[in-house]
Amino acid sequence: MSQIADVDTGGPEQVPVSTRLSTHEVLVRSQETTPLGPGDKARIWRHPGLEDVEVLQGSYQNYEFAQHFHTVPAIGVVDRGAMSTYCQNATHILPTGTVFLLNPGEVHAPKSATENGWGLRVIYLEKEFFQSRAEDLGFEVPQFVKPFVQDAALAASLLRLHRKLERDADTLNIENDLADVFTHLSERHIREPRHDSAIRDERNKILRVKDYLHSYYWKNISVEDLAEIAQLSRFHLMRTFRRDVGLSPHAYLTQIRVEAAKKLLSEGASIVDVASDIGFTDQSHFTRHFKRMTGVTPGQYLPQWRPNQGLAHKLAE
After folding, report:
1. pTM of the predicted model, to two decimals?
2. What is the SS3 assignment for 138?
3. Is 276 in contact with 284 (CB distance < 8 Å)?
4. pLDDT (tens digit per residue) in 76-98
5. Where is the HTH araC/xylS-type domain positioned along the sequence (predicted)?
6. Based on C-alpha coordinates, what's the Rg of the chain?
7. Where along the chain do the CATH 2.60.120.10 domains lie?
C-alpha cells in the first residue's frame, strides 16, 4: 500500500509586489533558545492579558519555511530585508514594510529574497477573537481581501502593537492599539466572502477527504484510503486536492499534525509523547516538520505555556 507523498509541480512564477512597564512575565514567556541556524533566530509567545493572541518575531538569514498554512488569521509586517514567499500559485517579493494578511488556510512558504536575510513580526489571532472584533465593526464573516499590501499606516500600527505585546504589561494600552488596527483593517482590507449557490461535486469530495484527515490524522493513512473516500482515482484525487487546497494531501496531513501538536503541548504533554501520539515516526522527524512550519522548535514553543520550566528548557536543533 503506497503512502501519501508530495508531488513536485515545479517553481512558481516570480511576481513582485507593487508594491515604566513590568516586562518580566512577557519576556519570560518569550524565552529565546538556541538559534535555528547560523544567522537565524525566532521566538514565540503570548501576552498574559491576551491569551487569544499568539506573537512571533523572527530574524532569518538562510531559513526557508515549508509550504504551510495557519488555521487562524495571521497579520504581520516584514521589518527587515526582503522576504520571498510562495502564495496563490506565484512567488512574491515583499520588501521591508510590506503587510501580510493571511486568511486561514492560505498556503505560503517564506524565505529570504536576498543574501542579506529578512525579519518579520507576526500576530496570530484565534478565530473567535478575530470574529468578535470584526463583528463589532459590522462584519459577519470577515475575510482579508489581499494577502500582501503596501500600507504604511497599517504597518506602523502593527509594529507598534507587536512591540507592546512584547514588553508592555498594560492590557488596556494594548487594547487601544488593537482597536486602531482593526479599524484600519475594516476600512481597507476586510470583506465578506462570496457565496456560490452551487458547489461542485469535486469540491464536496475534497471536503470529505479533509474531514477524514482532521479526524484520523494520527493514523497511517494511504493514498488508497483517501481515493476511496473521495470516490476518485489516485491521480485525480492528488491533482484536485492540490488545486483546491494548495497543498498535497501529505503536506496537508503534516500541517494538521503540527497544529494538533501545538494544542497538546499547550495542554502539558511532553515533546516525546506528542511526537508518537500524532503520527510522526520519531521525535527528530516531528521536530523537523514543526520547525519548518512554525519557524520555531517545539522546545521554543513550550515556554509560552510553561513560563517557569521554559527558562531551563532547551532542545537540540
Report:
1. 0.68
2. coil
3. no
4. 999 999 999 999 989 999 999 99
5. 207-304
6. 20
7. 23-191
Contact 96, 86 (CB under 8 A): no
Domain with CATH 1.10.10.60 in the chain: 201-310
Is 97:118 a contact under the CB 8 Å cutoff? no
Higher pLDDT pick, 25 / 172? 172
Residue 19 neighbours by CB under 8 Å, 6+ apart? 94, 95, 98, 148, 150
pLDDT tens digit string along 17-58? Answer: 333 222 222 332 333 333 467 789 999 999 888 888 999 999
Rounded to 5°, angle at Cα 214 from 212 and 215? 65
Q: What is the CATH number of domain 23-191?
A: 2.60.120.10
Q: Dig out the grid coordinates for 168 from the structure.
A: 508592555
Q: Which grid cell is 242?
A: 492540490
**Strand pairing category for 90-94 and 13-16:** parallel
- For residue 162, give the 3-state DSSP assignment: helix
Identify each DSSP E strand in the chain by its residue range.
13-16, 41-46, 53-60, 74-81, 83-87, 90-94, 99-102, 108-112, 118-125, 143-144, 148-149, 190-191
What is d(CA 146, CA 105) in angstroms, rounded to the nearest whole number? 14
CATH class given for the domain over 201-310: mainly alpha
Cα 109 from Cα 85, distance rounded (Å) = 5
For residue 246, give Cα distances in angstroms to 83, 135, 262.
20, 29, 22
